[in-house]
Amino acid sequence: MAFAVASLRSVARRRWGLAATLQQVSGPGRLTAAPFSSAVLSNHYDTGSLLRSPTPDDVNAFREMLGQSPGSVLTSLEDVESYNTDWTKHYQGTSSLVLRPKSTKEVSDILRYCDDHYLGVVPQAGNTGLVGGSIPVASAPAQEVILSIERMNQITSWNPTTGIITGQAGGILQDWQDYAQQKGVMIPVDLGSKGSCLIGGTVSTNAGGQYYARYKSLHANVVGLEVVLAGGEILRLNLQETTSNNNDKESKNNTVLCNLKDNTGYDLKHLFIGAEGSLGIVTKVALWCSSAYPTSRCAVLCACTSLEQVQECLPVARRVLGETLAAFEFMDQAVTELVAANCSGSISGMIPQQQRAMTTIHFIHIIAF
Ligand SMILES: Cc1cc2nc3c(=O)[nH]c(=O)nc-3n(C[C@H](O)[C@H](O)[C@H](O)COP(=O)(O)OP(=O)(O)OC[C@H]3O[C@@H](n4cnc5c(N)ncnc54)[C@H](O)[C@@H]3O)c2cc1C
């Protein structure tokens, strides 16, 4: 319960506008029957007072649990500072305890302890989510514990037959991309934050990225997940690794049982993709990769004078480029001006003379490979 309350807050913050509207529509006293986002808000505020802040005894218990390994329990102001601030520097938390487990078992032990002792937990990955979901709430009645997955960063298996890469959720997206490239395949998601965001955070936000037009969302490409629930229970959803002798040691030679096609029964992993930590912590990910790493690509920047023109371009691009269409991204006038004002190489030089005179220009960036 403690974990769920704290982590649900991230979804609540992101969906605040929607929740407020739904509450107005559904009226007071009907929140339990209301859609998910309304229930999230009421959960957070009704039960927040049950939680308590971590004490020195809790810190000692975590030190014992995580085997005194250096860097696994952070408590000094200096050490926890960066974990309390997100990429935008807009959200600021006040947590004084950061836990950095290295294995699924350690995540499970931490969550079981927090659940038993009424400590709220915020899962944190690369901290680039942009909406503050990975940052503890400064105004919460009790301090929340930050559980960072950044040390769970091993890629544990590669299956050349199915094209599936499996690894711990704390791997940096760029590292997964580099690993995939060495194997001649391509990770089907690419974001501006790839050097900092982690695969578990990316799955938890269901981040889209520039190749959405080709590969669709992570719901289409994540084939297996391992997650730890609030009480410490470990769920393996189409992802079973052969047990190695030491739980903490994960090697790239592990055998993974993960079906590329599994159309039996319910598919629970989809509940955790995009759940932002509200249902559990993602500890391992099995991701299908595109079979060929492109050896050539073609990018084009089109200028349109209306949003209608932008919309007309998409079916044309799909018809002309067919399966090779990889990205179709649009920047409106305001974004274009921001880019022009903040980047050294001005974009205005690329705009034809007669179009420069027009009041509104929207750009479409199309990539094919
Ligand atoms: C420059 C830049 C470009 C971006 N481009 C795109 C884009 O093109 N498309 C797009 O969709 N998004 C984009 N994003 C936002 C995107 O959501 C994040 O970059 C990234 O995917 C989040 O990953 P993270 O590791 O930083 O997660 P965090 O920010 O650390 O966490 C995000 C959320 O997931 C939760 N969480 C983290 N780890 C776990 C876990 N293991 N289990 C359960 N919950 C967890 C956190 O509590 C939080 O609620 C961009 C961000 C930046 C800064």
From TrEMBL:
InterPro entries: FAD-bd_PCMH (IPR016166), FAD-bd_PCMH-like_sf (IPR036318), FAD-bd_PCMH_sub1 (IPR016167), FAD-bd_PCMH_sub2 (IPR016169), FAD-linked_Oxase-like_C (IPR016164), FAD-oxidored/transferase_4 (IPR051264), Oxid_FAD_bind_N (IPR006094). SUPFAM superfamilies: FAD-binding/transporter-associated domain-like (SSF56176), FAD-linked oxidases, C-terminal domain (SSF55103). Residues 91-292 form the FAD-binding PCMH-type domain. One of its GO terms (cellular component) is mitochondrion. GO terms for molecular function: FAD binding; oxidoreductase activity. The keyword Signal does not apply. The keyword Secreted does not apply. Its cofactor is FAD. Keywords: FAD, Flavoprotein, Oxidoreductase. It comes from the Eukaryota. PANTHER family: D-2-HYDROXYGLUTARATE DEHYDROGENASE, MITOCHONDRIAL. This is Probable D-2-hydroxyglutarate dehydrogenase, mitochondrial. It comes from Seminavis robusta. The lineage of its organism: Eukaryota, Sar, Stramenopiles, Ochrophyta, Bacillariophyta.
